[in-house]
Amino acid sequence: MIIKSTRDGFGEALLKLGKTRKDIFVVDADLKESLRISEFAQKYPDQFIECGVAEQNMIGVAAGLALTGKTVFATSFACFSPVISWNQIRIAVCYSKANVKIVGSHAGLATGMDGASHQSLEDIALMQVLPNMVILVPADYEQAKQLTKLAAEHVGPVYLRLARPETEAVSGKRLAVRVGGSEILRKGNKITIIGCGIVLGEAMKAAEKLDAEVINCYSVKPLDEKTILESVKKTGRVITIEDHNVIGGLGSAVAELLGQKYPVPLKILGIKDKFGESARDYKELWHKYGLDSDTIIDAAEEVDQEIR
Amino acid sequence: MTITYMDSNDLPQISKKVRRQILEMIYQAGSGHLAGSLSSTDLLVSLYFGGILNKNDKFVLSCGHYAPALYAVLANAGKFPEKELKTFGQLGTRLQTHPHNLSLPGIETSSGPLGLGLAQAAGMAMGIKPNRIYCLMSDGEQDEGGVWETVMFAAKYKLDNLVAIIDKNGIQIDGKTSEIMPTEDLAAKYISFGWEVFEIDGHVFGQVLNALEFAKTVKDKPVVIIARTIAGKGVSFMEGKWEWHYASLSKELFNKALKELR
């Protein structure tokens, strides 16, 4: 089995795209090695622009390039862009509908080692509230390749959220992806687990014991309302999980949907409005902050008791 | 060097008309950014009517609050009907109070928050080489750190098809720039970052046009034209007064101002 990171998938897919898509430009803020785009920079120097540690300028330059007809990937860590560059993303990218793909890597507690300052737990929330923005979060290496290609094909602003660690595939067979799509990773009847990103691996572990249906909501915005509602009408209960603050993330989006269209018991798992901390292994953090399969199983039990 | 503008004698007349239209727009809207729109008028008129812009050159307004000046200039340049100017800032208008690229022909970027335009202009400069990008900023805008990220960037990439113009009218919302955040040594700053700098009087058309023509000859460096201007230029009771940065006009003052611009 291939064990690679979603940032690996991004870098490899981009390298492939660079060959045929001469309209694709990559701008970078001194993190090309971490974003796995060094080879792209080397192979396609005319399509690569090093901006230095200056994310505001990087997004502005990306928007300017996009307004001249280029498809631009603007890459950094999520804690720097979209965080430092949010003003530029709001006005120069989203309001202007510039064809810019904001790529935020090392998102979530999964960043591990570097601690709270580098663990972006707010980036999905920051992107959710911007009109015209599409949010894509790959669950594994293979899907990162698919979503990178999708981002390049979609005309308009996209936020692509990537993770640092190398993880196993959450699914053996891959379905086609689309903006506003999702994939059912596992059929089940008792409960619906909705997640995004590499933490879905934990959801899949828990699902075995719960007869759960697991939905990979790789398109956090727009949300695949149809698939979610169909599953929830069958199971009648929901757990969401994401490596992000419980405020403003996928769980909030699902709650907004279900609260208005089909209210059912719901548990939102994620980081409970806290900052993270350092740890040698991100799995220790996932355990401590409630993002592992045990927490999902406990949450399912709580939902059951509430219904009884 | 031969200056290629068509008939510079017309420029003062066009400027007068543009200034009247700025006053009318802001009077009708109820309030607006008067001082900067009036201080930058001669710069914009020189750019659009002085034979400077080639077909595929582009202009980016970074200080979006100067929109009335740009709209009046674009209308006179035939980008949209002049009568539409009176819709400025009204519900449903294409003339948003701060420019929106998707709303109106001739508007390349969206602006409003300061410090966003130069980076976009730099990106466009890379995207449409060898055509030129002109970017107008205000002097108060130089307070924004993001501007200086781009100043470094444009020098690194030797963007000699990028021409920044700074409307140095010496005021910002709350007072004189010398008091709010001094930028007296702007030229030295830009020079030390590796830019070519021209300092001119922004109300003398010959100087403005000369600087814009010379900017085309500079190689391997971005250019900034620092234009000393007078806030509220053309209306005696506004000139040099920061209080007119954003204001509304009584009917009496509106008529008085218009009379001065006949």
Protein described:
- Chain A: This is Transketolase.
- Chain A: Its cofactor is thiamine diphosphate.
- Chain A: Pfam families: Transket_pyr, Transketolase_C.
- Chain A: It comes from Candidatus Shapirobacteria bacterium CG08_land_8_20_14_0_20_39_18.
- Chain A: InterPro entries: PDH/Transketolase, THDP-binding, Transketo_C/PFOR_II, Transketolase-like_Pyr-bd, Transketolase_C.
- The complex is a heterodimer of chains A (about 300) and B (about 260).
- Chain A has helices spanning about 5-20, 40-45, 55-65, 85-95, 125-130, 140-155, 200-210, 225-235, 250-260, 280-290, 295-305; strands at about 25-30, 50, 70-75, 100-105, 135, 160, 185, 190-195, 210-215, 220, 240-245, 265-270.
- Chain A is an alpha/beta fold and about 300 residues long.
- Chain A folds into two domains: about 5-160, Rossmann fold (3-Layer(aba) Sandwich), CATH 3.40.50; about 185-305, Rossmann fold.
- In chain A, strand 1 (about 25-30), helix 2 and strand 2 (about 50) form a beta-alpha-beta unit.
- In chain A, helix 7 (about 200-210) packs across helix 11 (about 295-305).
- Chain B is α/β, with parallel strands linked by helices.
- Chain B has one domain: Rossmann fold, CATH 3.40.50.
- Chain B is about 40% helix and about 15% strand.
- Chain B is built from nine helices and seven strands.
- Chain B has helices at about 10-30, 35-50, 65-75, 115-125, 145-155, 175-180, 185-190, 205-215, 250-260; strands spanning about 60, 135-140, 160-170, 170, 175, 195-200, 225-230.
- In chain B, strands 1-2-3-7-6 form a five-stranded parallel sheet, with helices on both faces.
- In chain B, a hairpin with a 2-residue loop joins strand 4 and strand 5.
- In chain B, helix 4 (about 115-125) packs parallel to helix 5.
- Chains A and B meet through helix 3 and helix 4 of A and helix 4 and helix 5 of B.
